Amino acid sequence: QVQLVESGGGLVQAGGSLRLSCAASGRSISNYAMGWFRQAPGKEREFVAAISSRGRSTNSADSVKGRFTISRDNAKNTVYLQMNSLKPEDTAVYYCAAAPKYTTVRITPNAYDYWGQGTQVTVSS
């Protein structure tokens, strides 16, 4: 079992930045693909960014390309999401997820077996 705990969310003005962290425990995630998803009120959960197990490959949604960066530190068993130039439409609960069956980037939620409880990000205009 892997437990994932997100942190770093909060309230920020448009144009600001936040860095989300996802700390894993229970097992090493160094061989797992990892991802970030988000869900806004009344909307379905959507893909934000994903990273391969070694961190050599990443992918991100078109809506966040050039603004958000996913990274990982396997020595710390932690994944990060650096969010810059935030917009009000980025407001959502952000979830970290682990895909132990895969080492390569995965963008669909059904590839992920473990999920954190989420952290709220609110961007004011």
Description:
By secondary structure, the protein is mainly β. It has strands at 3-7, 10-13, 18-25, 33-39, 46-51, 58-60, 68-73, 78-83, 92-99, 114-115, 119-124. It contains no helices and eleven strands. Strands 2, 4, 5, 6, 9, 10 and 11 form a seven-stranded mixed beta sheet that branches. The model has no long low-confidence stretch (mean pLDDT 97).
The average pLDDT score comes to 97
General shape? globular
Give the biggest sheet: 7 strands, mixed
Q: What is the element string, with H for helices and E for strands?
A: EEEEEEEEEEE
Helix content: under 10%
Fraction in beta strands: over 45%
Counted beta strands: 11
If you compute it from the alpha carbons, what radius of gyration comes out, rounded to the nearest whole angstrom? Answer: 13 Å
Provide a count of the helices. Answer: 0
N-to-C CA distance: 40 Å
Q: What's the quaternary structure here? A: single chain
Which segments are poorly predicted (pLDDT under 50) over 5 or more consecutive residues? none
Structural class: mainly beta
Summarize the structure.
The chain has 125 residues and is mainly β. It has no helices and eleven strands.
